[in-house]
Amino acid sequence: MPESPTTQWSIQRLLEWTTDYFNQAGSDSARLDAEVLLAEALQCQRIQLYTRFGEVPPVEPLTRFRAWVKRRAAGEPVAYIVGYREFYSLRFKVTPDVLIPRPETEDVVVSALEACKGFPKPVRIIDVGTGSGCIAVALAKQLKSDFQIAATDLSLEALAVARENAAAHEVGDKIRFYEGDLLEALPAGSTPVHLIVSNPPYIGRREADTVEEDVKKYEPDSALFAGEQGTEIILRLVEQAPRFLLPGGKLVFEASPEVMESCIDIVGESPLTFEKVLDDLAGLKRILIASYEQAPA
Ligand SMILES: C[S@@+](CC[C@H](N)C(=O)[O-])C[C@H]1O[C@@H](n2cnc3c(N)ncnc32)[C@H](O)[C@@H]1O
Predict the structure, then answer these.
(1) 223 lies in some domain
(2) pLDDT grade for 28, boundaries at 50, 70 and 90
C-alpha cells in the first residue's frame, strides 16, 4: 500500500486497499486474507476489525502488516505467514515443514469418530502421516477419554510441530508420536488397533502440472506427492494395514477423486474389505473406508 504522510490508513481503508491488491494478485480469498493478516498484526479477533473501522493503527503493527501483505501478494499462504490454521475449530501451529490442514480433511475426523462408535473402549487408533497432528489432536479432543492414539510421520520436523500442537491442546500425554515409514514406524510387536486413519500424500508426479504453483512452491513436497501415479503410498499403507488392525478394525483414508478408482482396486486386491467412498462438500470422491474382517496373520 502506498506510504504517504498525508494519507490516514484507517482499518477500513487498509482492508479495502489490500483486498483490491490481493484480487489483482490473483488471490481467490482476497478479503479474508486481508482480514486475517490485519487482525494478526493488530493482535485482535477478525470480527473486532469491524468495530474498529475508523481507527488508524499504530506504526509498528502497520509495518508488520505491510511486510505480510507483500509476502501474501507474492503467493505465500496466509497460514505460513501468521503461523497457524484453524482445523476442526481448533488452532494448529503450522510451519513450512507441515501441510496446511485442509477443510476436506475434517471429514476424515468425522468418519473416524463415526467408526469409533462401533468399537469397545479403550479405542486404539493410529494416524499415519500426521503432519501438523491435526487429525490425531482433533480426535483426541473429541474422544476425551478412554482411547489411545499413535501418530507417525517420516518427517522429524513435522513430528515436532505435531507434538507442540498436541501439548497446546492438552492432549500431549494422550498421543504417542513415532518417526518412520507409515505403520512400520511403530515399535515391533505393537498391539493391533481398531482404527487406522490417514491423509497420506496422494498426488502423482504425472499430475503435478495441475497443482497450484503456490502449493508446490510453499508446501512440503513429501506431504503432497506420492510417486508417478499418486497411489504408491496408499498401496503400501493398504498392504501394511492388516498386520496392524484387529479383526473388525477399519482403515479410513483421504485421497483425491483422480486416484479414488485406483484406491478401490488396491483395496479390492488386499485382505481388506471395501466398505464405501464418501464425497466431500464439493461432491468429489474424497474418503475411502475399508474394514478388516479376518484374524490378523
Ligand atoms: C498430506 S500430508 C497430511 C498431514 C496431516 N495429516 C493433514 O491431514 O494435514 C501427509 C503427511 O505424510 C507424511 N509422509 C509422507 N510419506 C510418509 C511415509 N512414507 N511414512 C510416514 N509419513 C509420511 C508427510 O511428511 C506429511 O506430513
Answers:
(1) yes
(2) confident
